[in-house]
From TrEMBL:
UniProt cross-references to InterPro entries, sorted A to Z: DH_E1, PDH_E1_Alpha_Subunit, Pyrv_DH_E1_asu_subgrp-y, THDP-binding
Cofactor(s) it depends on: thiamine diphosphate
NCBIfam families reported for this sequence: PDH_E1_alph_y
Protein name: Pyruvate dehydrogenase E1 component subunit alpha
Keywords: Oxidoreductase, Pyruvate, Thiamine pyrophosphate
Record's subunit section: Tetramer of 2 alpha and 2 beta subunits.
GO biological process: pyruvate decarboxylation to acetyl-CoA
Gene Ontology molecular-function annotations: pyruvate dehydrogenase (acetyl-transferring) activity
Entry keyword Ligase: no
Key word Oxidoreductase present: yes
Amino acid sequence: MNSASCAAKISTQPFSLNPSSPTSHDNPLVSPKPTSLFLGSTRKLRLSSSSKLNLRRRSGTVFAVSDVVKQKKSKSTPSLLITKEEGLELYEDMILGRAFEDMCAQMYYRGKMFGFVHLYNGQEAVSTGFIKLLKQQDSVVSTYRDHVHALSKGVPARAVMSELFGKTTGCCRGQGGSMHMFSREHNLLGGFAFIGEGIPVATGAAFTSKYKREALKEADCDHVTLAFFGDGTCNNGQFFECLNMAALWKLPIVFVVENNLWAIGMSHLRATSDPQIYKKGPAFGMPGIHVDGMDVLKVREVAKEAIGRARRGEGPTLVECETYRFRGHSLADPDELRDPAEKAHYAARDPITALKKYLIENSLASEADLKAIDKKIDEVVEDAVEFADESPIPSRSQLLENVFADPKGFGIGPDGRYRCEDPKFTEGTAHV
Ligand SMILES: Cc1ncc(C[n+]2csc(CCOP(=O)(O)OP(=O)(O)O)c2C)c(N)n1
Ligand SMILES: [Mg+2]
């Protein structure tokens, strides 16, 4: 079966990852009680019929479900989930992400950026819903789809755009580019081009927080780390290894899966034996939860619980956000594989349109308030482009900075000597 026909088959019935009848649970983010018969036991694991039953029951009871929001609503009607200020902050952050990415597409096609550029359109509710709850000292680890995570974490649009333009004013002085956003000041610990590569880094950051608090007795160190990654990454070994360590050591981390149903042109449903990723949390002894990733308010409620748990020292959580990317995998992808009906289904659930509707219907904002934000953000993005365009390109001497391997790979010059040994090699300015 070729991928196109497979996509068509799947997309006629957009797949919901929600379990049809989720097990009820008082608080889905409360860690399951260790019910295993085998903890600390030296007994050989023999699957007698009764132990088989126990195992089955265990995975049933530790199931964490995705109706935190429903429970909250029923307990605390008729109060709204957010205040006016929070609503406007969320809206502004999502608009910034969307407008920034749309501008990136324009600049990429005008030849202002190099290499692969992966846009985040459609997924904004995840970045905003989670990152806007963080403190400055909390850390974020991203993937190659990282511009919007950086913006939500507070890295200025100028610094992100300049990085994309490869300019010295970029957050990595132009050396990282689209897939490697990093800012020490904002505790953005990197975008990573290899999938899964960021998960151990995030786990290490979370370990650092715990070590500082418990071993170095820095009592106020309650920093939390968020690790963002995609559905396609969840079949990668680093994911499983890190879930294990995080649960074992009760690390202050939230694993945030942005399940946009596709890994380049590979459907999640075709690649994964059990597509409900959140179920893998309880398998390691941590809560797993599924949330509608197109609804920023639901994401935020789940994020609050998960971040709160981590901050209180109660350990990690796995959150699966069901979302969708509105553009191709990267700007080099003509996006011909996914079925138009599937795209239309998710386009109709645009998270920004949904938030706008909620804010207006609940009198948290007027059309005019939101238009004013749109205008302000347009100016921020325009300014970022002008700033990036006018910024200087890195000097040639920057090329060998941070290169720890033998740089002889730069080749042999016409005089037969290694180019890097030519004293002029690091002089002047690089022209691309
Ligand atoms: C270790 C590794 N293997 C393969 C790739 C090639 N690759 C690039 S993106 C991608 C798909 C990732 O999909 P997903 O995790 O769902 O993230 P999304 O692009 O949907 O955000 C793959 C396999 C890679 N970058 N790194
Ligand atoms: Mg994906």
